[in-house]
Amino acid sequence: MTGPIPATTANARICPNCDGFATAAVSSGGRDHRGHLRTLTVNCPACHGHGTWHTRAAQLAGGRA
Ligand SMILES: [Zn+2]
User: pLDDT averaged over consecutive 10-residue blocks of the chain (65 residues)?
Assistant: First the structure.
């Protein structure tokens, strides 16, 4: 077998940058007139909020392109 081997095959498609937690709510400070906390929804820049890593079909088929 050639090439890097993932730690486990079960989570091989989870985004390595966010570990699957692709969206976060970030407080922007302050509250609105109803007392709700103002938050911004930010997506992981690597997976664009999907939480999965796009593995090419060739890699899934054994790593030969
Ligand atoms: Zn991600």
Answer: 58 85 91 92 94 70 58
Question: Do 42 and 48 touch, CB atoms closer than 8 A?
Answer: no
pLDDT of residue 18: 94
What are the boundaries of each domain within the chain?
A: 23-60
Q: How far is the CA of 31 from the centre of ligand 1 (A)?
A: 29
> How many Å apart are CA 24 and CA 15, to the nearest integer?
14
The CA 28 to ligand 1 mean position distance, Å, reads 21
Please tell me the predicted confidence (pLDDT) of residue 60: 57
